[in-house]
Amino acid sequence: MLTNNTFEHNTFANRRNEQKPANDHFRSTRQWLNIIFMLGAIVGVLLYLFHTPQTVGIIVILVSMVFKIIECALRFMK
Questions:
Q1: Which of 74, 10, 68, 73 is nearest to 41 (CA)?
Q2: Could you tell me which of 75, 76, 78 has the C-alpha nearest to residue 30?
């Protein structure tokens, strides 16, 4: 049986608390940019596969990649 004292000393259990960034100012913005990227990528792939001019799907994927690049830049700025 694990007690609170044993649970606190377990390095596997404390790993989550150590990985939380203390001052991530752009966290919610980055999450929204990731959501936009994921939706754009899915829509782009579907357009690429099922729409006759495949150029439209490629353009949608490239535009969604711009959101991912912005998110990566914000991640490095923190």
A1: 68
A2: 75
**CA 16 to the chain's CA centroid:** 18
Any idea what the Cα angle at residue 34 is, between residues 30 and 55, rounded to 5°? Answer: 135
- Name the residue among 24, 29, 22, 59 with its Cα closest to residue 44: 59
Q: What is the pLDDT of residues 10-68, one digit of tens each?
A: 566 556 556 665 677 889 999 999 999 999 999 999 999 998 899 999 999 999 999 99
26, 74 Cβ separation under 8 angstroms: yes
The pTM score is: 0.69
